[in-house]
Specification:
The N and C termini lie far apart (44 Å). Helix 6 runs antiparallel to helix 7 (156-166). The longest helix is centred in the last third of the chain and has 32 residues, at 227-258. The chain is built from 10 helices and no strands. With 259 residues, it is an all-alpha fold. The chain has helices spanning 2-20, 25-35, 40-64, 70-90, 96-116, 134-151, 156-166, 171-195, 201-221, 227-258. The chain has one domain (2-258). The mean pLDDT is 78.
């Protein structure tokens, strides 16, 4: 029974990751920790493996449908990797709890913006567009990489609104491009866990089966789902991420407050 539940959890994460460009880690980690009572040190590397699988399963479909902007993705991914390296070096000097609270406030604000601001009823997907504000995109991707290293979250919740609202990239293109980028970042991140022997194949195997199936269907469903629906779903996921960050930050801050 547990194996089938793990497959179902992986399927949900793969579907959400492919639809919204978030990799699925923000869905899978809470499911593994609270639903399956796994320690965080086991849930995180398993989630990273699933992020890589989700990206691989959906990237080919998005490239074929000309949804992924490969040139933009490569440009921003270089900044993301650099930020991840810098975040790893700064981890010993910054208080992760305070960073988590700040990130939670940001994602909460973006979610409210998506939910409350009326957007056009129809957004062109394959029409010609030109990304703007490359300095903002590169600096934002650097921050996303740093947050990924500091907090163990994927950069999708930051990179999708960054490309969509900051660089004027169509939302579906931003989601597909983020999905492509997350696979590269996840592969680099999971390598260190695998080197230390923290990737448990008995746990990862059924999850990946579900993730591959969910990402396959999600990548084919996403072009058909109205952009307004995807934005609402993304906002809901951002609210979940904000709650996770407030919880993670509160764990570190409240003990010091009550001392």
């Amino acid at each position: 029974m547990t194996v089938f539940l793990l497959i179902a959890a992986g399927g949900l994460a793969g579907l959400a990751g492919a639809l919204l460009g978030i990799g699925g880690g923000v869905v899978l980690v809470p499911l593994l920790v609270f639903g399956f009572h796994l320690p965080l040190e086991e849930a995180v590397p398993a989630s990273l493996m699933c992020v890589v699988a989700s990206s691989c399963a959906s990237a080919a479909s998005y490239v074929d449908n000309r949804l992924s902007d490969i040139r933009l993705g490569l440009s921003l991914e270089l900044a993301t990797v650099t930020g991840a390296i810098a975040g790893g070096l700064l981890a010993a000097y910054l208080a992760p709890a305070m960073v988590a609270v700040v990130f939670g406030l940001f994602t909460f604000y973006v979610a409210l913006q998506i939910l409350l601001v009326r957007s056009p009823a129809q957004e062109p997907v394959t029409a010609e567009y030109t990304p703007v504000n490359y300095p903002l995109g590169i600096s934002g991707s650097f921050v996303a990489g740093g947050l990924s290293a500091l907090l163990g979250v994927g950069g999708g919740p930051l990179k999708v609104p960054l490309m969509s609202y900051g660089m004027r990239v169509p939302f579906k293109v931003a989601s597909a491009t983020s999905n492509l980028m997350i696979g590269v970042t996840g592969a680099a991140s999971v390598a260190s866990y695998a080197w230390r022997g923290q990737v448990k194949l008995a746990l990862v195997s059924p999850l990946i089966v579900g993730v591959l199936a969910g990402a396959y269907f999600g990548s084919r469903l996403m072009p058909r789902v109205p952009t307004a629906v995807l934005k609402k779903l993304f906002a809901i996921v951002l609210l979940v991420v904000a709650a996770q960050m407030f919880w993670k930050g509160g764990e570190g801050l409240w003990p010091s407050v009550w001392k």
